[in-house]
Fold these 2 entries.
Entry 1:
Amino acid sequence: MSKISPAPAPDFQRLFESAPDLYLVLMPDFTIVAASEAYLRATMTVREEILGRGIFDVFPDNPNDPTATGVSNLRASLERVLHHQVVDVMAIQQYDIQRPESEGGGFEERYWSPTNSPVCGPDGEVTAIIHRVEEVTRRTQIERLLEASEARFLTAFEQAAVGIAYITPDGRWLRVNQKLCDILGYTRDEMLTLRFQDVTHPDDLQDDLAYFQQIRSGEIADYVIEKRSIRKDQSIIWANWTVSPVRENSNKPIYFICVVEDITERKRLEQAIRESEARHRTLFETMAQGVLYESGDGSIIGANSAAQDILGLTLDQLMGKVPIDPRWGVIHEDGSDFPADTRPAATVRQTGQSIRGVIMGIFNPRDDAYRWVVVNAEPQLQPGQAAPQQIYVTFTDITPHKQAQAQIEALNEILERRAVELEATNKELEAFSYSVSHDLRAPLRSINGFSQILLEDYADQLDASGQAYLQRVRAAANRMAELIDDLINLARIARAEMHFEPVDLSELARNIVREIVDTKPERQVEFVIQEGMVVDGDNRMLRIMLENLIHNAWKFTSRKPQAHIEIGVQEQPDETCVFFVRDDGAGFNMAYADKLFGAFQRLHAITDFEGTGIGLATVQRVIHRHGGRIWAEGAVGQGATFYFMF
């Protein structure tokens, strides 16, 4: 039997140094006594330069990183191994490695996953520590990049100006951002209990589901739809939904990404624009003013109904035509021809400037007559362009105005002739009035004078009846003289020139009352005159008016032992002022009120109250000349009130 020689003992040091993992062997004082080739390559060190040195001398913290904790964390782990004789697995550490000077020196960022294991002797004491590390720099950097990317994604997802959501194939919300919650009015937790079908308007749901199914079946890659959504408060909004699938390897959708943009305001504006266009179209077609749109070359591209009526042509006859066609009859106001190149639209086309207020006559073939119009022409210019792309022409039919103007001119000629005739008539009336006044007054003075002589010189030859008759003759003559004076005054008021100025009616009334009271101071009459009654009028005429009204009140209260007369003003709701003269005298029957202001009209016997019957006619004439009116209210035995306003 042959003897087998023992195999040579393995070289454990070489095996250790050749190990593919990263190892160091440390003494309890943390001196390096062995290192694997893989460790040396990873740390860019040389075995001879690190053996026998402390690990923290070989691998210090990066002095350029004040937050570096590699040394302190590794030291704490090694201390735990020494004290507890157990393996210590460290969390991933950033522990930068110093480059050799040949490679530029400095520190290089590295990440490690260290494990420190004790090697114990027979007495249980730690005789060495095996420091094993796994370099995880690339993995850590990738993870950090992924974390940063995820953070950026979350920021973009949450801060997006549009709503974003992940939706399962059956329509449930997987993830939603805050903007989508704001759009639909739900909290995030509430949204995650719903499906997109729950917030879609019923009238839009079928179209949405049809698109959704086409994506699931692969018929379409994605879709965009504008639809109505129902908010939590049940209000309706419009939103634009862009839906795209995320598919697995089998091409089956795992979930859908939805981007939701609230377009409610845009929809509102679109609707407002449509309504505005409809209103403008209605206005364009119904406005009385004629409107033409002309292109840059002068051809007609639009005309409303009024334009067709004024021009006497249909829209088909107008479209594409050139309004400067010489066959179109256009004239000036004096009847001369209106050259085509000087018409408003042509001028605007040449200058690019607006033309307004041009009067022209346009021949209307349907009426076989000219229509007179006022024309405005406006250019529609694009920025930076001098020549208009379109011209907007409007024309207002003033034919009735021109006809009325012609009638007015004819009437003015007639009025001028009549004014001349009236002036001659007025002069004749003035001469007649003077003649009547002079010729009537002379016999009246004779009657009055001879009657007075008879009474004075022949009184002893006349009995009482004769004297009474003569007194009546004298009274009638005096009354006739007063009547003549009143008639002449009435005629003068109708023709007198007026001078308007502020007139204090309160002051006028006080002066008139003082004069009246002085004639019969024994009468008991209470006068009330309101202060501050000021109007714009002719002072002389207004005094005549007030004198007649106040004298009337004084006269018709003469039979009362104690009378009350008031002159005042009433302000109406429309801020106009109604003045009045009120008394508590004889009054009148309202059935005859329309006769009060007629000349010679009397509602009382002359034996009861004196007067000529001209006073109120004079008052009315003054009021009418001031552009006002007068009326009266009263009752027999209860007084009367005369109202007047300007």
Note: The longest strand covers residues 236-247.
Entry 2:
Amino acid sequence: MALSTTRIVKAWIVELLNSWMIASALIVLAAIAGLYSAMSASPLYSSTAAVGLQAIEELNESEANPDALLASELAEATASDIVDIVTSSTGREIEVSISLDTDTESTIEFTSVSPTPELAADDANAVAETYAESRVQRTRSALEESLALLEVNRTALTSSAGLDEAVNATDITASAAQLAELNVLNERIVDIELALNSAESAARTVRPAKSPSEPNSNDLFTNTFLGALIGFGLAALYALARSITSQVIRSPRDIEDFALPFLGVMPLVKAESQIFLGNTSLPEAEAAISRLRLGLERRNQLGGTSQVLFTSPTSWGGTSTVAGNLAAELGRARRKTILLDGAFRRPDLHNVFGIAQTPGITDHINQGVSLAQVAQRAEGLSNSLIILPGGSDLESPQDLLLSERLEAFFKGLVQQADWVVMDAPPVLGHTDTLVHAKHGFSVVLLVRVGTTKRGDLREAVDALHSVGADILGLYVVGDRPEQWQELMGISAIDLTAQSDLATEKSFWGEINSKVSS
């Protein structure tokens, strides 16, 4: 439970940061609304009437306790319908709040808010007087009930003891205890009769409401601050709802439970050419591709494959850029590299390099066009890189994908190059990439921040696992790559193989010498 809560909180914070423009807009709009409300609101006037309470000890124990009396009467005044009574008598809605006077003991305040000072005072006084009358009437009724009960008891006692008005008669049969009880009853009756005579003092207006000279002040700062606070609350709720319901991958948290190696992150590239190596205005992107190459070469030295396939769960047009730049980087590092377009239905790799689509792979396999005619080199790139475009479109390439000719073609490429890199179509929708993966290609799954959905990624991973594909890991493309730096220490090599320090140093030294030569 604690882990789940922590994940939700982290996702909420990330979503709030990602939605900072929406959050800022909500805060500003709510603050403006609060300011406008304060400035445009009609003036209101407040006036307060205070009613003092007198404890009547003859009623009950709570009446003898000022604190208990005040608490019970405040509850009575709040729960009663005195405001409704005044509303009915005036024929208009009134707004009156009831509270304790903290400066004076046993005093209840009635505060009215009205559009005019006269109405504010009148409403407060009317409710206060109605409550005072109610309190007096309740007190009188309670005393009268007590008096009636005592008189019934006295009559019964007098009758049972044989007492009458002639108390000196010789036939008095009352016991001393009965006489004592009779005296107590008589004293109690006298006390209650005296209390009845002063019942009017049980509640009275001690401070009548007066017409205020100035309206209530509209606190602009407070209203604006409250508006901004409400706006932040709305933004927080919006971010929380998106973090819980949204399936789009936005942060490292969203790929943690896939248990796949993290191969790196590349920022989104906005340039005229999708092949950006050597573009001094895109150093971060170029460095990201260089790190990917070094990581894959390190894995290859430790026994990994040199056939790499780049794909994504669904179509978003990023695999051609990453695969093309990685192949160009391998060629620049003097590695004999063959880059091929595995999207036989709708080839696209040729557009990245500005070369012809045909003749291509499908023409070579289906029509016998020589490989020398198919192979092309891109202008401005290393001669170590050979590009094999897709060739003529195939609406249904199933026969080609399952043919022995294609399998033999792939095996021949491996014998002629250090690296074979494929730009493959999305995993979902067709089985093309799953077939390619069974031909010895290890898979790099591309994830685009803000576009790729967790459900699609999960479905793609499951599909690749179902055919026994070797998934090298996830490669992320998106804005704000710095938020992924925490995962940079987790690589395919770290999770799949270990090498001794001497071998590692030797390997890196070899790479550095080849790069610098």
Note: DSSP finds 19 helices and eleven strands in the chain.
